[in-house]
């Protein structure tokens, strides 16, 4: 029979990598609590219309990458490719814009995009994200970027570049788009087919093209820079965001080509990048999306947010630090020699649990040599051996894995000794 394997572009996450995930997830939850962004868990699938209207019909996500299917009731549903449109859908559906318009959300979980898989690009991947809805102030953009920066630093990531841009607003964006189209039309024949098709329909997408010769044309001197077209309001907004970040010792680089792959952005867009992951260099990104609510049927609800790719963060962390540092090891390895030993150690495990001492209980059908090796592999500090003899004498054999010292201890003194040793290890 043919072996059943993982679907392409997905992966199992388990021992030992899962410990790095716990490290990242714990920091995200802690920072969310400090900044008082409250978790929202939206469904893994939504009505297809949400993403078509929210993310934009012209985007790669909607045109090529969605997992869309008809359910048994004939409704078109889509596995969520991102989290912002679902959060806004939930906010509007629950009428927060009427009752409690200023909301701060965070989320963490799987997203789905039918992309060509490679390192750091998956079909099922995970994001954590933050959304501040109902805030017009540029300080909200700055808070979101600051929060992202704090999280990356606390995770332990280094050498991250923050790029920022503004896409203008309803007032100034049309003039920019006209100038951009003129620039692109003048060189239409030299662009790849994809780009030339987009010149009239969605010229900003051309800036995202990965094709080297398209990028060469775009990086010519006559390329219109959006900063020269921003209205006073957008320019003040951008300067304000950058000013706050600078005062917090965060130094963004303005990248006028940073348009991002989703159509809901206006004003601020930003991305966090690394040089260490090859082509998949964005480890997070976001921006302001004051038009998203309009696309979903309610006018003028401002919002700003960001999302980070967890697989890419983990890959980078594995490159930049010693993965072993994140492993959660058992302090004690419990090794029964026979059935009576199992009985003794199972009861001991309850006491260890009550004293919050982490342990690993193995079972007796292996040799002592195997258990020593296993305890070593798990990096346990102590091994406790028990069999018929220990059962009769109400003792345990305790071995310090580091010093090799082995002694027999009575059941009454063991927990006190272990608690002391565990506190010492925790404090070092
Ligand atoms: P995005 O740039 O499409 O933005 O995705 C955010 C991050 O998710 C990327 O920077 C990348 O790290 C990760 N990512 C995206 N696609 C993949 C993939 N196929 N495999 C692995 N990682 C991936 C958004 O999704 C917006 N919703 C962000 C946002 C929130 N804007 C405002 N609020």
TrEMBL record:
Binding positions (L-histidine): 82-84, 113, 127, 131, 260, 264-265
Domain Aminoacyl-transfer RNA synthetases class-II family profile positions: 1-336
Record's signal peptide: none
A GO molecular function held by the record: histidine-tRNA ligase activity
Xref: Gene3D superfamilies: Anticodon-binding domain (3.40.50.800), Bira Bifunctional Protein, Domain 2 (3.30.930.10)
Subcellular location: Cytoplasm
PROSITE patterns: AA_TRNA_LIGASE_II
Highest taxon in the source lineage: Bacteria
Annotated Pfam families: HGTP_anticodon, tRNA-synt_His
Family, per entry: Belongs to the class-II aminoacyl-tRNA synthetase family.
Binding partners and assembly: Homodimer.
NCBIfam families: hisS
Protein name from the UniProt record: Histidine--tRNA ligase
Species in which this protein is naturally found: Atribacter laminatus
This protein's encoding gene: hisS
